[in-house]
């Protein structure tokens, strides 16, 4: 993920996991069965805080969770994330990001 402070005192994050990165590596999210999460019943929510914020106190981004793509797509195991805005991040401030994943079939909220 990439974080950039913008002029109106908020940070923006590219919340996709199918973009080209500077380093090699698999960007998929896997279930405990070692298979990629695939299908729109799986979602990812971006949460954030300052480096001193307790992880269980991170704030979820106001945007809705990103759904994973269907198994028939050319990029299974990736999500449709888009850009997310971190409302409470000011210019020059460091943010710690956390991605939470779950299955809507098991946990609807």
Radius of gyration: 15 Å
Binned strand content: 25-35%
The helix fraction, in percent, is under 10%
Q: What can be said about the biggest beta sheet?
A: 4 strands, antiparallel
Count the helices. How many?
Answer: 0
Order of helices and strands: EEEEEEE
Shape: globular
Tell me the number of strands.
7
Q: What structural class should be given to the helix and strand makeup?
A: mainly beta
Low-confidence stretches: 1-9
Termini Cα gap: 24 Å
Please state the average pLDDT score: 82
Domain count = 1
What does this structure look like?
This protein has one domain. 0% of the residues lie in helices and 30% in strands. The chain is built from no helices and seven strands. A hairpin with a 3-residue loop joins strand 1 and strand 2. The radius of gyration is 15 Å and the shape is globular. It starts with a strand and ends in a 6-residue tail after the last strand.
